Amino acid sequence: MPFVYSNRAHARKHGPAGYTDFISYKPWLRDEFQFRCVYCLERERWYPSGHAAFGVDHVRPKGDPDNIALICDYQNLVYACNRCNSVKQDRLLQDPCNAPLAEHLRVSDDGSISGLTAEGQKLIDLLGLDRVGPRTIRQRCRRIRLLYQTHPDQPDVCALYVDYFGYPADLPNLDSLRPMENSRQTA
């Protein structure tokens, strides 16, 4: 399901360290968060510019002087679409690596999203998660998924499904990256 928030806190699979520019972590974060925004769950493939429409977000905002030491800390970085990232700005939101977002947000079959907690409603309100645009994208994705489930042997339907839900063509080659440190395997 493309729009199901995890019922577990995200467990980091990578642990690069030592970059002096937080943007250098973007290839790792793309893979870490499966090429989709941690907040709205939209995928790179749904944007004409692909990963250029996504960026590195600081969970603990980089604009807060108390967080200066976390600017290049991988554990403080998540992958977010530019829309969510620019709206969030320097606000502190729920960290998907500390708490499962499924405890706070639920997407219905009609594409609407509801807050299960005050924190979930804050995410919806601040990021505009239940606006017409994002809701329409969720409805379209649901129709494509249902079409594929009923006609998986039709080549055009299969191609459409892969276009929407497959991995991007420009996967990052993490083996070629050489962070100063890496506390986890890149598998």
Textual characterization of the structure:
The structure is a single chain. The protein is of the alpha+beta class. It has five helices and six strands, in the order βαββαββαααβ. The strands form three sheets. It has a two-stranded antiparallel ribbon with strand order 1-6. Strands 2-3 form a two-stranded antiparallel sheet. α4 runs antiparallel to α5.
Tell me the Rg in angstroms.
Answer: 17 Å
Hey, roughly how much beta strand do the residues contain?
5-15%
Q: Major β-sheet, in short?
A: 2 strands, antiparallel
Alpha carbon gap, first and last residue: 23 Å
Quick recap:
The protein is α+β, with helices and mostly antiparallel strands and 187 residues long.
Write the layout of secondary structure elements.
Elements: E1 16-17, H1 26-32, E2 54-58, E3 77-81, H2 82-88, E4 105-107, E5 113-115, H3 118-127, H4 132-150, H5 155-165, E6 181-182
Antiparallel strand pairs: 1-6, 2-3, 4-5
Descriptive terms for the model:
single chain; 11% strand; 6 strands; two-stranded antiparallel sheet; 187 residues; alpha+beta
